[in-house]
Amino acid sequence: MPTFNPASGLHDGPEDPDLARRKKLLPHLGLAEDRPVPQFDDLARRLAAAASKLVGHQHLGTMVNIIQDDQYFAGLYLPAGGASQADTPATTSMRRMPLSEGWCVHTLHRRRALPLNDVHAMPRWSGNTAISRLRVQSYLGVPLIHPSTGVALGTVCAISTVQNNWGHAGVDLIKDFGKQALDLIDHIATEHQQTQRHNPEPTGIPAPAALTRHIRETNRY
Asked: What is the mean pLDDT of residues 138-163?
């Protein structure tokens, strides 16, 4: 549970018990390097379109966030006249965020979806510096839980410069895009493994083929 820090005047973020395991797992998945991933950028764009339709406006930014010592938006969509700025220099600088900002670290910690219709509704959220820096008024996120290991890798999220009533439909939407992101992670891991066949498998981490079987078996039910 975050606690108030008198020195900073802000609420400290939660602990991240998965950090060490995540750092060992991400290289195996081909996601250790902080880099834009085109498949994630496309997913962020599609999420923005679906969320905009749901809430009735286009004041939304969307991210696929891989969290290590800071937050890196491997997938990013920011609206600018209806088009993504994902490849512009301005957006490149916005792909990184400290752990002290935003709400994804809380989503990661709780391991379930976090809908915040109004980020000012609770003091623990309203002091977040992302509010002033990005003008965020509303947040919706879901953690990315690696199916085979249970490690939380990051999040898929949407932020808005206006308040929203996400409701059950919003939570269902972000969960669906979280599942899509996990499918993409499996695909990226498989491609990465094919180019790294000469390297031994990391100890204790299942190969992408095992992850694929796990997903297929889970989808039967």
From this structure: 97
